[in-house]
Amino acid sequence: MLLSNLPALQVVIPLVAAPVCLLLRNPRHAWAWSTVVSWLVLAMALLLVQRVTAGGTLSYAIGAWATPWGIEYRVDMAGALMALIIAAIGAIVMPYAWRSIQHELHKTHTGLFYTCYLLCLTGLLGIVVTGDVFNLFVFLEISSLSSYVLISLGSTRRALTAAYQYLVMGTIGATFILIGVGLLYMMTGTLNMMDLSQRLPEVADTRTIRVAFAFVTVGVSIKLALFPLHIWLPNAYTFAPSVVSAFIAATATKVGVYVLLRFFFTVFGIRFSFAAMHVGEILMLLAVAAILIASLVAVFQDNVKRMLAYSSVAQIGYIILGISLASTAGVSAGMLHLFNHALIKGALFLAMGCIFLRLGSVELKDMHGLARQMPWTMAAFVVGGLSLVGIPLTAGFISKWYLVSAVLADGYWPLAVLVLVSSLLALMYIWRVVEAAYFNVPGAEMRKVKEAPAVMLIPTWLLIGANLYFGVNASLIAGLAQRGADVLIGQALP
Amino acid sequence: MTELLGHYNYWIVIVLMMTGFYTVIARPNLIKKIVGLFIFQTSVFILFISMAKVTGGTAPIIEAGISVYSNPLPHVLILTAIVVSLATTALGLALVVRIREAYGTINEDDIHVQDEED
Questions:
Q1: A164 vs B118: CB contact, 8 Å cut-off?
Q2: Is the whole-model pTM more than 0.90?
Q3: Contact yes or no for A182 and B95 at CB 8 A
Q4: Which domains, and CATH codes, for chain B?
Q5: Are B74 and A182 a contacting pair at CB < 8 A?
Q6: Mind listing the pLDDT tens digit for each residue in A161-177?
Q7: Residue B51 C-alpha, separation from nearest chain A C-alpha, in angstroms
Q8: Which of A164, A186, A191 should one mutate to test binding to chain B, selecting the residue with the greatest count of B CBs within 10 A?
Q9: What whole-number distance in Å separates Cα of residue A432 and Cα of residue A221?
Q10: A216: Cβ–Cβ under 8 A, 6 or more apart, which residues?
Q11: ipTM of the prediction
């Protein structure tokens, strides 16, 4: 009974838990509650992956209203994998959050923080399980509105302007998606994704559908921070509380990529998106620009969080590059990198949170000689950084390997060179941090700095461990990504 | 000509949409930006409501002797979208209040100047 309602429970449990969290008031209780809920959500996500692996796509009619009239929750391999990423990052970040949030937020805000976190989790999970385009818009707004709040809780006043900027751009993006959904509904009379995919080919050759496609693509591109629509991202990641940076960097943009995949492959269909609208070429161009320009900009940043934020823009470029190939190999490389990048950036931002807790700063100039004082944190950063660069035995290597193979299979060898060049750029900016922390002479202030507490180190190292594990033992997650790509491209059996 | 004028509600949508969008981009005043955003979203509501209209249709209530109804679904969708946009506006204005407290101004250019100084 409970198991058959799994797709709905995945969303309903954090949604119901959020107001309870608000009522708890006491920060410690709110934290304990949201940690328990996060781990419960992770257990459900694992169960969901297991059920989808065993039994194929799950379909769930909300309120038992038959599809396509009612809202359908539809979990296929791609959705289940995304749910697992979101839930895993959420569960790992929560134990870490207690000390970090206590340090960075005012006491009166902590209870509210956990409420917003649960709402954000709800929205992100909702996006990946729903099979209804309007429902997707609503969940997108739930996750966005709560992430604006989470970002604005940052310790400096610039967090407020960063959140405001994100709010304005995010709302424009979401409204564009709404316009696209409206135009689709106007032409087909349906909002269900599967139903849309069947009805669209009849009317695909109309201006309305082309305009809908353009609105959706641009709207989602703002959400996933595709270059040059990424302007909101660096400030948002830099000034948000450390936990929020880690959580949002690892999940929110990834979910944006997932929405793009859904629309391109499931709703509009690969033939319309890539053959008729030529979106592949446009995305490839933007991905290349993102990889090169954002990596270059990252090299010149002195604030490490901002450096990592620009690096995220470049990494999103890799993911989009894979998708732009529109081949099974390309899309599965994109999805694999999506998973691995969530692990990498999650870990790196958590390491930054440890440093911020002890130093009160993440500027390079304040980190001179830090490795002597915080060896575990810096070791975590180095391993995560190597994974970001794509050194063998780390997760980052696996996804770059798949990406380069996919690119070469389609004969785009200059792009393969580009991926390698930008990996060198990644090495450069990671090296700057390593140099400051390991080779520069520490100041007198540095002597008093202590290693971060174990409650924060353990989650950080859990993610680093995952990076190493999936770097050595890649077949599991590569298999899931492959199946996800198969489902999206439509080569899998229904 | 009737083609153009017959769809006048869509023209209103486009004018409102561009007005709102322009305000968001061009105005340095943070509150005016939020107002622009709201107008921008409102135009989409009218777009949805316009498409629900069925020529000669009445309100969607089952009644003897009436067979043509307007489509009620877009209205319901927009009811949800209005709630979302209300929440966005409220949150945006709340942020502006906090920004005013922290910076002492709601002018984007002045805020940039202050951020540069930091």
A1: no
A2: yes
A3: no
A4: 2-57+67-117 (1.10.287.3510)
A5: yes
A6: 999 999 999 999 999 99
A7: 7
A8: A164
A9: 30
A10: A176, A177, A180, A181, A263
A11: 0.94
